[in-house]
Amino acid sequence: MKRLGILISGRGSNFEAIAGNVASGALPAEIAVVISNRTDARGLETALSRGLNAVCLPSKGLDREVYDRRLAAELHKHDVDLVCLAGFMRLLSAGFIREFPERILNIHPSLLPAFPGLDAQHQALAHGVKITGCTVHFVDEDLDAGPIVIQAAVPVRDDDTEETLSERILKQEHRIYSEAIGIVIAGKYRIDGRRVIFT
């Protein structure tokens, strides 16, 4: 069974959704470790309450390369097959990404390549788009630019605020992240340039 390493920085609602699917058997994987770069991340408590390995590796004040080496060592210690970023609010170094080639997934609250980076929901509203959504993609050395595994569309309503739009996108995030993890751990895909093709 494939072993997941889940990286969080906050409440970890995507982590909770993944953990729920693992616990129910809907996602045939095991969570090897949950790592937060912040001591106050609520997701750490959730992980502990589920009986999972929960590790806090504080990143504050550390050089990115130094921190990423520690992070990679912790993931290797737990024999992680797939790294899942679930609200992990740090840019990963090229060195870290090379440690886990095509083995890091991220979820982003927009239909990439639209609105990469921070405040994607704000960007969507500011641009007046009628449809936005979320994207699960492989992480490469460019920001929010790796091959896309799966996406879900969310209509933008005229009366939406960042909060209401974020809430509806998050529901879709919770659904598609586990779906994408399932595809990747089953190996039922190949990467052809920028495209993820299901096999």
Describe this structure in words.
The protein is built from 6 helices and 9 strands, in the order E-H-E-H-E-H-E-H-E-H-E-E-H-E-E. It has 199 residues and is an alpha/beta fold. It has 2 domains: 101 residues, 3-Layer(aba) Sandwich (Rossmann fold); 93 residues, Rossmann fold (3-Layer(aba) Sandwich), CATH 3.40.50.170. Strands 3-2-1-4-5-6-7 form a 7-stranded mixed β-sheet. The protein is globular, with a radius of gyration of 16 Å. The two termini are 20 Å apart.
SSE layout:
Elements: E1 2-8, H1 13-24, E2 29-36, H2 42-49, E3 54-56, H3 64-77, E4 82-85, H4 94-99, E5 104-108, H5 120-127, E6 131-138, E7 148-155, H6 162-186, E8 189-192, E9 195-198
Parallel strand pairs: 1-2, 1-4, 2-3, 4-5
Antiparallel strand pairs: 5-6, 6-7, 8-9
Helix pairs in contact: 1-6
Keywords for this structure?
alpha/beta, Rossmann fold, 2 domains, 7-stranded mixed β-sheet, two-stranded antiparallel sheet, 6 helices, 37% helix
Summarize the model shown.
The protein is α/β, with parallel strands linked by helices and 199 residues long.
